[in-house]
Amino acid sequence: MQVFFQTIIGGISLGAIYALVALGFSLVYRTMGLVNFAHGNVVTVGAYLASTFYLTSKLPFALAMFVAIAVTGVIGLVIERVLRPLENRDFDLMLIGTIGFGIVLDALVIMIWGATGRAVPSPVPSAPIDLWGIRIRTYDLVVLAIAAAATVLLVLFLSRTKRGAAMQAVAMDHEAATAVGIHVGRSNAIAFMIGAGLAALAGGLVGPLLYVSPALGGALGIKGFAAAILGGFGSIPGAIVGGIAIGVLDSFTAGHFQGYSELVTFLVFTVIIMIRPTGVFGERTVNRA
Amino acid sequence: MRYRIGIIALAALAAWFLPYGLDSYAIHVVNVILIFAILAIGLGLCMGVGGQVNLAQVAFFGVGAYTTAILTTKTGWGFWLSAVLALAATIAVGLLVGTPALRVQSHYLGIVTLGLALAFTNWVTNAQVAGGAEGISAIPVPTIPGVDLSNEYLYYYLELAVFAVGLVFGLFIVRTALGRRMRAMRDDALAAGALGADVPVLRMTAFLLASVYGGLGGVLYAGLIRYVAPETFSIANMFLLLGMVIIGGRQSLIGCVVGAAGLYLVRELLADHPTVAQIGYGTVVVLVVVFAPTGLAGLPKRIRDLVTRRRGGQGEAARLQPFQPYETVRPDESGSQSPILEVDGISMYFRGLRALDDVSLSITPGEIRGIVGPNGSGKTTLFNVISGLYRPTRGRIRFRGQDSTGLAPYRLARAGMSRTFQNLRLFGDLTVEENVLVAIDRNATWHSWRYVARPISVLRRDRDLHRRAAEVIERYGLAEFAALPPKSLPYGIQRRVEIARAVAAGPALLLLDEPAAGLNGDEVRQLSEIVRSVRDSGVTVIIIEHNMGLVMSLCERITVLASGHVIAEGEPAEVASTPAVIEAYLGDSMSSDDLPSVPEVTG
Amino acid sequence: MVRLRATAISASVVLALVVAAGCSAPGGDDKKAGDDSGPIKIALVDAQSGQLSSLGAWELKGAKLAVTEWNAAGGINGRQIQLDVFDDQGDPTTGTNLARKIDSEGYIAMLGTAESAVTIAMAPTLKTAEIPNITSGQSPGLVAVGSEFLFLNGPTSTTYDETLAKYIVDQQGIKDIALITNNGSYGKGEHDAFTKALKTRNVTPLVDQVVTADQKDFSAALTTIRQKNPKLIFLGAEEVESGLIVKQARDLGITVPFAGAAPQGTPVFLDTAGAKNAEGTIVSSPYLSNDINEASKKFATAYKAAYNEEAELHGAKAYDGAQILLTALKSSNVASGKPLADAIRGTKYQGLLGSFAFDNTGVGIFATSIGKIENGKLTAASS
C-alpha cells in the first residue's frame, strides 16, 4: 500500500511538469492549428535560461524563473515568426518543419551552453513532509501549486480578458475572427509567446528535479505531447489531466515492469487512444461533407 | 520516351560502374545510403503516397535487422532463410503498428507510431534474446555460391539489385490502380470512401508496404554491418529518415531516393563539424518545408511553371466541350417496382442537437427526387446518413432491398451508391483523369496481390481503365482538362468533374449535394441536361438544391425538410403551395433567397 | 537540343568512368600505408553530438591534453602528432562508416569510443584494417569481441564490482544489499558483474530493481527497496541517473549508503544528487579524485589551465589511453598495424588510473580503489 501511494505521489510530481508541457502544446494548437514538435526544445532553452539566471547570475529562484519566462517568451515571438508559414499546413509538413527547427535549437543550445549539462540545487531546502510513511517533497508541492496557478491564470486570461476572448475566437474560426477585426497574426504571436513561456516554466521547474542537459527537452516533449493527446488535443483541462495521467502511468509501469516500463507505457497509451481517439476532453470532430 | 529509356540506361550503367571509382570507405557509405534509400521508399509510399503518418519506419528497419540477427546467431539457420522469416516478422509488426491508423490519423497517428517505435527500442534493450543494450555481434556473412559477400564491393551489387527491384515495384504501384487509390485516400479519405475505396484496407496496405521496405532494409543492414544494437533504431535516425523523405519530396519515390542520398552524403561530408552540420540540416529542413513543400522532386515542375508564367501566356486556354448525352435506357414498366431506397424513421442527434428527427423517405427507381429546405434543416446530414458517413441514432435504411444502416461508405459505394459533396471534394493532387480513374476502378484493394503474382494482368487492367476513363472524360467534354489538377480549374468545371466522377463509378443511385451552387445560368442549364440524361441512362437521382428553379423543373417529386422533420412531400407544384412549406421558408428570415418561386429554368 | 546535350554529357561522363576504371574488378583499393614523414595521424572517435556528447566532450579534452604535451615536448621521433576528431553521434552505423574512413585516410590508431555498442560495431573493420583501438568502454562485451587490436583504457565492470563486493561483504560484513541498475549497456554490465561477485560470496540481494536509462521518477523502485530495509544499496547507472536516484531516495527517507562504480565518484553525480545526499557513498574507482597523488594533481592543474573546468574520471581515462598509445608509438619507432598492437600490449605504464600491463584480452588494469564520499569529497576509504 505504501508503495502504491508513494508511486502515485512520484507520478503526480512529474505529471505536473508533463501537464505544463502539454498545456503549451495545446494552447498553440488550439489557437494556431500548429503542432509544434520543437516545443520540447523550447523547454530545454527555458531550463537553461532559468538555471543560468539562478546559478550564474545568482538571482533568487523565483526572479530567475520570471526572467527566464520573459526571455523565452520573447524568443517564442522569434520562433513564431519563423514557423508562421507552417501554420494550418498539412500535418506532415508541420511535423518535419518543427522537428527541423527543434534540431537547430538543440544545436544552438550545445553551442551556447556546451554538451555536458548542469545540476540545479533545489531552491526549497526544507525536508520532505512525512504522512504515515508517505513522503512528499516540499518542492513537489511548490511545483503543483505553480502548475495549478498557471492553469487558473491561463483559463482566466482566455475567458475574462478581451485579448483572451479574441484568441478563443481565432481558435474557433480564424477567417471569421479576421472579419470582425481581430488581428490574427498578433493573436497567434501572443499564443505562441505564452506557449514558450509555459515551456520555460516547465523547464525551469524541472531543473532542480532533474538535470539540465541538451537532452532534457526531448524526453519531456514526447511525454508532454502524449499527455496533450491523451487529455484531448487542444483542451486546457485535458492537458492537465493528460499530464498527470501520463506521469502516474509512467510511475506504475516503472514499478511493475521495471526495464520494460517504456514498452508498457506506450502500449497502454496506444490502446487508450484507439479506444478513445479524441482523448478525455476532446471534442468529437464532425466530418462536414 | 526514348529520352527516358536513355536516362534509365545511363543511370543503370553509372550504378554498375560506380564501385570502380570508390575506395573502401566510400563504397561502405554508398552501401549504407542504399539501405536508407530503401527505407525512404517505404516511408514515401506510406506517408507521401498513402498519407499515413508513420514514425515507426525505423522500428520496421529494426525488426528486420534484429530478426535476421537473432535467427542466424541463435538458431544457426542460414542467412537467406532467416531473411525471409525476418521479412515475414516485419510485415506482421507492420500490420500491428498500422492498426491504430484505422482509428486515428494525423498527429494522433504520429505520436502513436512514435511511441510504438520507442517501445521497440525499449524491448530490444531489455530482452535477453536480443542481446540487451550490447546488441548482437558476429552475424554470419550471407552466402551466394561463388560470390564473396563479405567484400563490400560485391555486396553493393546485391544491394543494388534489391534497391532497383524495390524502386521499380514502388513506381509500378504509384503509377497504377493501387497507388492512385492510395493517393486519392491521402488527398481526401472521405471522398475516396464514398467512391468505393476501402479506406481501412488501403491504410493497412500503406503500412504493409512500409514494413516490407523496412524489413528489406533491415535484412541488408544485418548482412552489411553484421552487428545490431538498439542505438541504430533511435528516434534521431527516424527524424533523419523523415528529413530525407521530406527534402527529397515525399510524393515522389525518386525524390525520396535523391533525398536519402543527398542528405546522407552532406552529413557525411560535414561529419567533422557536427554542430554546424546539425544547424545546417535543421535549417534546410525548415526552408524546404516553407519554400518547397514538394521537395527537390517538385523543383523541376515549379521552375517550369515559373518559366511559362514569365513568358506570359499559357498557350491556348483549354475549353470545355459540350456534354454528350447517354443513350436512353427505359426501365421495364412492369408495374410494381420496389423502392431503391427506403429511409425509415431516421433520427440523428449530435450532443443533444436533433439534426434529423424521425425522417422517412421512399425513392422509386428512375425518379429524380429533390430535397429542399432552409439552411440547417438537415439535408446534408440526411445525405451523410444515407451514404454511410454517419451512423443514425435511430431508424433503418434499406438500399436496393438490403438493410444498409451503418454500413461503411465504401461498402455502400460498392453496392451502387455514389455522391457528390456540397463543398467539392476532388482529389487535389490527382489529375482530372485520375479523379475519374479512381471512381471507375471497382476492384477491392485485396485484389492487389496481383501486383506480386501477376503484374502483367495489373498493367492490362490499368490500360482498360484508362480507356474507359477517356470515354467518360470525352462524354463530359473535359478532354482538354484531363491532364490538369482540378485545383487549377474554374469552379464550374470542377463541379462538372465531380459529377463525371460520381457517375463514372456506375451507380444505381446518385446523390447530388447542391450541384448548382456557384454556377452561372448557362452552367445550371447544362447541369440540368446532364442530370436528366444520367437519369435516362437508368440511374436514380436524389438532389439537394437551393436553386428552386432547377428543382421545380427537374424533379418529379420534392421532399421538404425543416428543422430535421419532413414537412411536405409531393409533386413540385403541390409542394410549393403547401402552407407549412411557405411558413417554414418565411419563418426562416435568414434565408429568404430560398423562397420557392415560379420556375425560371425550363428545358 | 538541350536534351541532346544532356545525353551527350552524361554519356561522356559514364565513358570517362569506364575508362578510368579500366577493366579491373572493383575494390582495387591501394592502401595508403602510414608514410614515414609528416605528422602521425591518430583518430579520436566519440559522440560529439546527440545524447552522449557530454562523454565525448570529456574524452576529447583528456586525450587532447596528452597529445598537446607530447607535441610540446617535440613529438615522436621528431614528428608531430595529429589528433583528429570524428563524431560517431553515438550511432553504430555511423561508427562503421568512420572505421572505414579512418582506414582509408591513413590513420594508424584510434582512441575512443565511450559507447560500447559503437566500439563493438567498429571492431571487425578495425581488426581487418589492423588499426589498434584504445576504447573507453568497460563492458565485458568488448572483451568478448576477441580482437587483438582492441584495448581498454580502464578496468572492466568485473574488476570494479569484485573490488566493491570484497570491500562491502568481506571487509564490512554487509549482507543485506539491494540492487538498482538501469537496463543500458553500462547498467546491465554492472548488474551482472556485481550479482556474480555476490554469488561467489553466497549473498543474495534483497531486491533487484531495474530501471530504464532515461527514467525520471524512481518512487516505485525506491519504495520497494525501502520496505526491505537493506543496509546498503548497489547503484548501477550513469552519473546523472545515479544522482537522481540518490536524491529521490533521500527524499523518500532512505538513509543507508549507496555503493557503485566510477560514475558515483564524479562531480556530476555529486552535483546532481546534492553533496549532502551523496554523503557516505562507497565508490569503486581507479581514479578517486584529482588530488589522490602527484600525477593526478599535475593532470588536474593542466586540465584546469587548458579548459577552465575540473578534471574528472573520463578525461583521466582518455588521457591515460592516449599516453599508452603514444608511449607504444615511441617504443616501436612509430610502427603501425600488428607491430603497433604488439607494442601497446607490451607497454607497461604507470598512469592516473594505476599501473597498466595488458593481457591477451586487451585489458590493462585489474585494480580499483575503494573511496568514500565524505564532507562532499571523494577520499580513499580507510579499510
TrEMBL record, chain A:
Protein's GO biological process: amino acid transport
Localization terms from the record: Cell membrane
Membrane topology value: Multi-pass membrane protein
CDD domains given in the database record: TM_PBP1_LivH_like
GO cellular component entries: plasma membrane
Single Gene Ontology MF annotation: transmembrane transporter activity
InterPro entries, per the entry: ABC_transp_permease, BCAA_transport_permease
Entry keywords, A to Z: Amino-acid transport, Cell membrane, Membrane, Transmembrane, Transmembrane helix, Transport
Family statement: Belongs to the binding-protein-dependent transport system permease family. LivHM subfamily.
Protein name in the entry: Branched-chain amino acid ABC transporter permease
Organism for this UniProt entry: Paractinoplanes tereljensis
Automatic annotation (TrEMBL), chain B:
Alphabetical list of SUPFAM superfamilies matching this protein: P-loop containing nucleoside triphosphate hydrolases
UniProt feature coiled coil, ranges: none
Domain of life of the source: Bacteria
Keywords associated with the record: ATP-binding, Cell membrane, Hydrolase, Membrane, Nucleotide-binding, Transmembrane, Transmembrane helix, Transport
Membrane-traversing stretches: 27-46, 53-71, 77-96, 108-125, 154-177, 212-229, 241-266, 278-299
Membrane topology type: Multi-pass membrane protein
InterPro entries listed in its UniProt record: AAA+_ATPase (IPR003593), ABC_AA/LPS_Transport (IPR051120), ABC_transp_permease (IPR001851), ABC_transporter-like_ATP-bd (IPR003439), BCA_ABC_TP_C (IPR032823), LivM-like (IPR043428), P-loop_NTPase (IPR027417)
One Pfam family per UniProt: BPD_transp_2
Keyword Nucleus included in the entry's annotation: no
Single GO cellular component term: plasma membrane
Domain ABC transporter: 341-588
UniProt subcellular location: Cell membrane
One annotated GO molecular function: ATP hydrolysis activity
Protein name: Metal-dependent hydrolase
Organism: Paractinoplanes tereljensis
